[in-house]
Write a structure and sequence with these properties.
The complex is a heterodimer of chains A (about 180) and B (about 90).
Chain A lengths: L2 H4 L1 H12 L2 H23 L4 E5 L7 E7 L10 E7 L10 E4 L29 H13 L9 H9 L1 H11 L10
Antiparallel strand pairs in A: 1-2, 2-3, 3-4
Chain B lengths: L46 E3 L5 E3 H9 L20
Antiparallel strand pairs in B: 1-2
The chains are: A alpha+beta (about 180), B little secondary structure (about 90).
Keywords (chain B): Cell cycle, Cell division, Metal-binding, Mitosis, Ubl conjugation pathway, Zinc, Zinc-finger
Organism (chain B): Myxozyma melibiosi
Protein name (chain B): Anaphase-promoting complex subunit 11
């Protein structure tokens, strides 16, 4: 590696070249941030939520689980979600979807979620852990003013027994879900 | 006994004078480190502190403010981000 010491300016310009493509730099910072989040998640071990990259090769695709909060119709049930991080995360929100079939006023039949912090209220300081905890609390506190699933919203407001019945009819145990 | 000093090497450490949080909330790297795009900490990658007292790596915050979703607000408290003048 003698060439490195040949001329200070030569080394400097090669550094600059590495920095030049913005996309490469962005990709690098996404990876760095997701690695730090993964580390934090594994160390803190928050009960009721978990998340992990799907494969070693792609850190931008995660899968997670959310346990239904106690005292809600979801108590004792566990839901699987998928998280896809854009190249400019955390400046843009990840795309989160329920993989488990979900009966909830703010989740549609394809698992798409309507939650303000994942859309117009997104902030760069949110992370996997805060998202999962927000989703967990959304389960027990739906926003029925703007439902994606109007029938679920109606049942939640007017007939909790019927709500629980629909929920259980749709629910699939996490073990039964085909691996994505 | 007489001692003659031929040569000495000074060593110093530094850190940003902002103890509120240890890491930048946007990139989650220590304040005393750099934002993900910088190589050298310190003056090349300074902190920025808002009137709301929230601090970030300057580069991280400026990048956030250029996004449409930021609406010019502090990522922590959603108040309009204005650099503190002290």
């Amino acid at each position: 590696m003698e060439s490195q010491n040949a001329h200070p300016a030569a080394g400097y310009s090669s550094l600059k070249m590495q920095d030049a493509p913005a996309s490469a730099v962005d990709g690098h910072s996404v990876t760095k941030r997701l690695q730090s989040e993964l580390m934090q998640l594994m160390m803190s071990n928050v009960p009721g939520i978990s998340a992990f990259p799907v494969s070693d090769s792609n850190l931008c695709q995660w899968t997670g689980t959310i346990a239904g909060p106690e005292g809600t119709p979801y108590e004792g049930l566990t839901y699987k979600i998928s998280m896809t991080f854009p190249a400019n995360y955390p400046y843009r929100a990840p795309v989160i979807r329920f993989v488990s079939p979900m009966w909830h006023p703010n989740v549609d039949m394809s698992g798409n979620i309507c939650l303000d912090i994942l859309k117009e209220k997104w902030s760069a300081i949110y992370n996997v852990q805060t998202i999962l905890l927000s989703l967990q609390s959304l389960l027990g506190e739906p926003n029925n003013a703007s439902p994606l699933n109007a029938q679920a919203a109606d049942q939640w407001d007017n007939n909790k027994a019927e709500y629980k019945k629909s929920l259980m009819a749709h629910y699939k145990d996490i073990e039964e879900l085909a691996d994505e | 006994m007489k001692v003659t000093i031929d040569k000495w090497i000074g060593v110093s450490t530094w850190h940003w004078n902002h103890a509120q949080d240890e890491v930048c909330g946007i990139c989650r790297v220590a304040f005393d480190g750099t934002c993900p795009t910088c190589k050298y900490p310190g003056d090349d990658c300074p902190l920025i502190i808002g009137e709301c007292k929230h601090a970030f790596h300057m580069h991280c915050l400026l990048k956030w403010l250029t996004t449409e979703s930021s609406k010019g607000l502090c990522p922590m408290c959603r108040r309009r981000f204005k650099t503190a003048t002290e």
